[in-house]
What we know:
Layout: H1 2-22, H2 26-52, H3 81-99, H4 104-115, H5 125-178, H6 182-189, H7 194-206, H8 213-221, H9 226-240, H10 247-261, H11 272-291, H12 306-314, H13 322-326
Helix pairs in contact: 1-2, 1-5, 2-5, 4-5, 5-7, 6-7, 7-9, 8-9, 8-10, 9-11, 10-11, 10-12
Amino acid sequence: MRYGLAGVVGAGLVGLVLHALASEHGVRALGGGLIVAATFAVGGGLLGFLFGIPKLLTSGAAADPDDRSATSTAGYAPNTNLEQVSDWLTKILLGAGLTQIGSLPHRLRQLGDALAPAVGGGSGAAGFAASLAVYFTILGFLAGWLLTRLLLARALSAADRQTLADSVNQTVLAAESLNFSPQQVRDLFGTGVEGLRVQALALIQGKPDPENVDLVVSAIDRHLSPFELLQALMAARAMAAQSSLSAEQRAALRAAVAYKVRNTRNVPPYSRRKSVADEILRVLPAAAAETAEPVGPVEPKAGPAGPQAAGTAETPTGPVVPAQVQAPDTTTTS
């Protein structure tokens, strides 16, 4: 993209320099041409910015696309005024442009005549000035649109992720004092809104409860975003440190994490998700060996939960572990 834009800008500037050299007033033609080019490039860039402003995709968009507050987990909702103004202006400009498209040649001639003195005057100056204006308007529009799409959306997403991460950290620290019951955590997770699902996982991190092992397994298996997967893995790490987990629950957690680690798109090497997952896999076999002798220290599928762990590891749908999800406190999984 950089090389392409640089080449197009260079071609326009070379044409401007050649025109100035052929003009009787070369310096005036070059200076005026540069100002004309910069003015229309900035105007085109502004239009490109308006057309390229990203739509706000809330974390709860899948559950309720019209609920702008669904992305809020810290008591605020994103401001969408700029997005709305962009929609209004683009529709108005498109509507006005389409109604005046028949008079476009006449308007361009008028524009060229008005700008001709700025680019040196003389024969052909009006046509060159109009061409220069159109050229740099289109160039500015494309540059503004591309930069807005590639950079602004990334910057806004990073800011939203940081805000959500700060909110999650506060929830983890306050989990004990909030004193949510396991059922309340389930209800929060069951809303289907990503921000609320993440908050439910944060509550589990701060106050792990064996009754919600199946919820953590489900979050690892069917996460809505990489950030939610990280929170689910951290919740699983907190669960793994609990001595009150049964052998079946430990096997279910290990099977879910082991299956997810094999997919490098979900758990890239050298990512934080990978380090947390590796820590869980190191802890769970040792914990399983201490609490349940039928479960081997390295291969938890040899224990009572073995058939489910082995079966889910071989299927492409991931470690669903239905028996543990339906009845996390049972002692048999058949």
